Amino acid sequence: MTDCLTGCAESPGDFAARLLAWYDRHGRHDLPWQKDVTPYRVWVSEIMLQQTQVGTVIPYFQRFMARFPDVHALAAATQDEVLHHWSGLGYYARGRNLHRAAQQLVDQYQGQFPRQRQALEALPGIGRSTAAAILALSGGQHEAILDGNVKRVLARHRAVQGWTGEAAVQKRLWALAEYLTPAERVADYTQAIMDLGATVCTRGRPRCDACPVADDCLARAQGLQSSLPTPRPRRKQPLRQVCMLIIQGPQGILLEQRPPTGLWGGLWGFPEVASVAEASGWCQAQLGGEPVRHEAMEPFVHTFTHFRLHITPVRVWVQNPAGGVMEAVGRVWYKDTAQAGLGLAAPVTRLLNQITQEDGEINGSHGEMRNAG
Fold it and tell me: Where does residue 131 rank: exposed (0-12), middle (13-18), buried (19+ CB within 10 A)?
């Protein structure tokens, strides 16, 4: 008899059994967050793994755990320090939400993770799938997850048409995820279906010959592996433009802290203007004088999920900025060996490294660089 949900005669237990047998032999068992498993370690790994490959996450996770070994250490840290350890990982709202959620966990739950999915979902940055993953992976609770890898496996196995971001498609996939999640070995099954999507049922060139559930995969039977899941409707990415002022004075390079929300929220970066022509005016208004000289560097494009940012870096040398320039909250003079704990956006780090590599140690004397020797 064909089940009305799965569209096949297969039982959910059969799907899980095949997947678990494959996982026992071929799954990933040595990832850092699979050792000394706690809700905290699972949570941090799940947040880091959003939109980010495992290979990229591993060194960040290890450094993060070394500095913030538990939720109390994370809650007690400053946002600057948290974002510094997040620098380069991207999607910085994840780091800010992680910090805020840690503080709420300490304040409201004495640092303990609630065992109810809805309570976890109420914390900043934790959605339904992440909350379920925390409970399933750390405690074996019967919760279904639906991250990007799982969506791909289920959309192909059941030939679910439509972009997975659509509400109706999401509802269908959630129903499948809940139906197929077994009552036993929930943690292993959860890791197994994620591993299957990450290593076998991949976005490009899925290895169907190695898949434990390929025999009744509808996408494979219909030759739809390359077209499922249905891609997101393409939208032209808008191009924004900005000039970053790399202002170099006697004490180093001027950095400003960005507002707590929005693009690169809470990170440190260069002052920004709309065009190169505004560089001198900005210095006059903010530093109390004209720059000694300025020159534009090679522009480049930094790509975000929804838009591209065309960045024109402008190096600006100043000699004697007004004394009040540093009275503004959220400004520092940066040197390559100082302020090591600041959270910096990737383009800012790139430009600071470029300046150091090309010219040597940052030194603002007379608006020039001194070679480090």
Answer: buried
Are 136 and 145 contacting, i.e. CB atoms less than 8 angstroms apart? Answer: yes
> Per the omega criterion (within 30 degrees of 0), is the bond before 229 cis?
yes
**In CATH, what is the architecture of 239-367?**
Alpha-Beta Complex (3.90)
Phi, psi at residue 230, to the nearest 5°? -60, 125
**Tokens at 317, concatenated:** 């040398």
pLDDT tens for the chain, residues 1 to 373: 334 454 444 567 799 999 999 999 999 999 999 999 999 999 999 999 998 999 999 999 999 999 999 999 999 999 999 999 998 898 899 999 999 999 999 999 999 999 999 999 999 999 999 999 999 999 999 999 999 999 999 999 999 999 999 999 999 999 999 999 999 999 999 999 999 999 999 999 999 999 999 999 999 999 999 999 999 888 888 999 999 999 998 888 999 999 888 888 889 999 999 998 898 899 888 888 888 888 889 999 998 888 999 999 999 998 877 655 555 568 888 876 555 678 888 899 999 988 888 766 555 433 333 222 2
Task: Write down the CATH number for the domain with range 12-222.
Answer: 1.10.340.30
| 327 given a catalytic annotation | no
Task: Name the residue ranges covered by the structural domains of the chain.
Answer: 12-222, 239-367
Options 46, 143, 166, 278, the catalytic residue: 46
Q: Please state, in angstroms and rounded to a whole number, the distance separating the CA atoms of residues 358 and 275.
A: 24
